[in-house]
Amino acid sequence: GAVVSQHPSWVICKSGTSVKIECRSLDFQATTMFWYRQFPKQSLMLMATSNEGSKATYEQGVEKDKFLINHASLTLSTLTVTSAHPEDSSFYICSATGRSSYNSPLHFGNGTRLTVT
Amino acid sequence: QKEVEQDPGPLSVPEGAIVSLNCTYSNSAFQYFMWYRQYSRKGPELLMYTYSSGNKEDGRFTAQVDKSSKYISLFIRDSQPSDSATYLCAMSQSGAGSYQLTFGKGTKLSVIP
Prior knowledge:
The complex is a heterodimer of chains A (117) and B (113). With 117 residues, chain A is mostly beta strands. Chain A is 0% helix and 53% strand. In chain A, strands 2, 4, 5, 6, 9, 10 and 11 form a seven-stranded mixed β-sheet that branches. In chain A, strands 1-3-8-7 form a four-stranded antiparallel β-sheet, with no helix packed on it. In chain A, β7 (67-73) and β8 form a beta hairpin. Chain A is globular, with a radius of gyration of 13 Å. The N and C termini of chain A lie far apart (37 Å). Chain B is 0% helix and 54% strand. Chain B has strands at residues 4-6, 11-14, 19-25, 32-38, 45-51, 54-58, 61-66, 71-76, 85-92, 102-103, 107-112. In chain B, β4 (32-38) and β5 form a beta hairpin. The termini of chain B are far apart. The chains are: A mainly beta (117), B mainly beta (113).
């Protein structure tokens, strides 16, 4: 089945610094990648949708200047949390889908736990 | 009313029990229904995928969709300690891989040996 790899699995950073999270599709071309955030005991909340080669579409309430998304190739999307603050501490998860799999369920990465001190 | 309601639990059952998990929803346009299993500090793993109404069985897992009642269920037979996880329902009206996927909050399940 489709495999989505996410790196790093956890990161601790100081307030005010930036953190980059990578999401890779290992065995298919991901035309679309999704970035979610999950707070403890809460469900996944979609932050943004990124299509290869174009600007990401952000959900309402998500600051595009704070959460920079780049989807430069069909196998890689990155999420950069800029000027991170403790309230950005969360579990960030990516998922991906390909051209021929729009109606196929999403496969998710293993998530990145971000802790901002 | 939230679009998707799911009892967060926690739900504790003895090993070997039949587990019933469910979600209700309000949007009658939902057509694609999924169940994901999420272990602690891991991403969701797809368990079952159903289009429209009906039942689907895969090993110890059975998914049911009742669109008339806007109710979906996941049954786990002969539950094992390794089934201990959070189970998320998800649904969409425009494709299972759509950005318009709506998740439930998840039900935390513990299977006690």
